[in-house]
């Protein structure tokens, strides 16, 4: 029986986040005035399993990038717990974090701004080695850089060129090579294809899928395009105004969403069959300000299913079916999926 329990037990997450809050105080408008607070992330909890890709989607300003940077400890959370490989890293010092850094890396959104134009590609990709493996010889670094470039589909001789000589897709491959050269187990991919042409987006997503399978990577894949997220993710978490509103296995979320915001996002995604018409749900107004979010359900001011009770109390983020979580009080709703 013990052996059966050992085999069937779910693996421990590589990353787990519990009740994460990040609030940013704005400057006072007057010397004696109070300071307004932006609730960028307000009580987010999730986990990423070994070898899993968790897609994190939502509109611009929903807090996706802030969550990703907080997980990597690039910005400090006000409260909550961040665990990496079972270890609480929420309040570790910079010195204590240093041995962990090589195992958790970031792919930046902008392939143009994230590469130093004064540095060669080889030096850019080798920078993590200079920081975390300073005892390597110059020849050893060049070999590792060449291997990293080949891994992402670039020739080894590209190491002597400069970023301006490459296209956007090639630059993003360089950014991926830099993130992978230390062989991390966990990546935060912060909208890695949003600045690229559609055809190039598919190439980069396919590359990440191949690298995930080859290296056993766990990835937090941040994006606002559900079509892209659905192609690479095992599970998808949906954010709205600093909170999670839904999380489920990707196929189930696309087939049967349980939150009205997810339904609206799916209706806006391009249909693969141009002859198949999908009812578009246009949300009224703009997202509320994170300075003063609505009472109760934060989505209620734009939700076509909202009732008076939605303003009274914030809905809990709860499991509505096996592995499917939602923060909507109206369980009776039958929502439109992407199929």
Topology:
Elements lengths: L1 H7 L6 E11 L11 E12 L4 E5 L6 H8 L7 E6 L2 E2 L5 H4 L6 E4 L13 H12 L5 H14 L16 H13 L5 E5 L7 H18 L2 E6 L2 H7 L2 E6 L2 E7 H6 L4 H9 L49 E4 L2 E3 L13
Parallel strand pairs: 3-8, 3-9, 6-7, 7-8
Antiparallel strand pairs: 1-2, 1-4, 4-5, 9-10, 10-12, 11-12
Helix pairs in contact: 4-5, 4-6, 5-6, 6-7
Quaternary class: single chain
SSE pattern: HEEEHEEHEHHHEHEHEEHHEE
CATH topology-level name of the largest domain:
Rossmann fold
CATH superfamily placement of the largest domain: P-loop containing nucleotide triphosphate hydrolases
Number of domains: 2
Total of DSSP H or I helical runs spanning 4+ residues? 10
Given the C-alpha coordinates, what overall shape results? Answer: globular
Reported for the largest beta sheet, the result is:
8 strands, mixed
**Poorly predicted spans:** 1-8
What gap, in angstroms, lies between the N and C termini?
42 Å
Radius of gyration: 21 Å
Number of strands: 12
Spatially, the strands of the biggest sheet line up as 6-7-8-3-9-10-12-11
What is the name of the CATH class of the largest domain? Alpha Beta
The portion of residues forming beta strands comes to: 15-25%
The second-level CATH architecture of the largest domain is 3-Layer(aba) Sandwich
**What share of residues is helical?**
25-40%
């Amino acid at each position: 029986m013990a052996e059966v329990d050992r085999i069937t037990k779910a693996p421990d997450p590589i990353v787990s986040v519990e009740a994460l809050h990040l609030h940013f105080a704005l400057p006072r408008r007057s010397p004696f005035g109070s300071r307004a607070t932006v609730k960028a992330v307000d009580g987010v909890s999730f986990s990423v399993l070994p070898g899993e890709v968790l897609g994190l989607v939502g509109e611009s300003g929903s807090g996706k990038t802030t969550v990703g940077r907080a997980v990597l400890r690039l910005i400090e959370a006000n409260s909550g717990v961040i665990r990496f490989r079972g270890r609480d890293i929420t309040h570790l010092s910079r010195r204590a974090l240093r041995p962990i850094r090589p195992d958790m890396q970031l792919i930046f959104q902008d392939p143009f701004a994230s590469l130093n134009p004064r540095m060669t590609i080889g030096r850019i990709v080798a920078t993590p080695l200079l920081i975390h493996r300073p005892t390597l010889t110059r020849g050893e670094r060049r070999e590792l850089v060449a291997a990293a470039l080949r891994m992402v589909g670039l020739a080894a001789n590209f190491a002597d060129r400069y970023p301006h000589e490459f296209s956007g897709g090639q630059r993003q491959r360089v950014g991926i090579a830099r993130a992978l050269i230390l062989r991390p187990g966990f990546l935060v991919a912060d909208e890695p294809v949003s600045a690229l042409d559609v055809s190039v987006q598919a190439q980069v997503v396919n590359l990440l899928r191949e690298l995930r399978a080859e290296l056993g990577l766990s990835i937090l894949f941040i994006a606002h395009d559900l079509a892209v997220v659905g192609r690479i993710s095992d599970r998808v978490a949906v954010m709205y105004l600093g909170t999670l509103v839904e999380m489920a296995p990707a196929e189930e979320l696309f087939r049967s969403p349980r939150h009205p915001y997810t339904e609206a996002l799916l209706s806006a995604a391009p249909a693969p069959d141009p002859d198949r018409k999908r009812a578009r749900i246009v949300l009224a107004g703009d997202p509320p300000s994170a300075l003063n979010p609505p009472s109760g359900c934060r989505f209620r001011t734009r939700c076509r299913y909202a009732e008076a009770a939605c303003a009274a109390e914030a809905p809990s983020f709860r499991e509505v079916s096996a592995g499917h979580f939602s923060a909507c009080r109206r369980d009776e709703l039958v929502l439109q999926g992407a199929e």
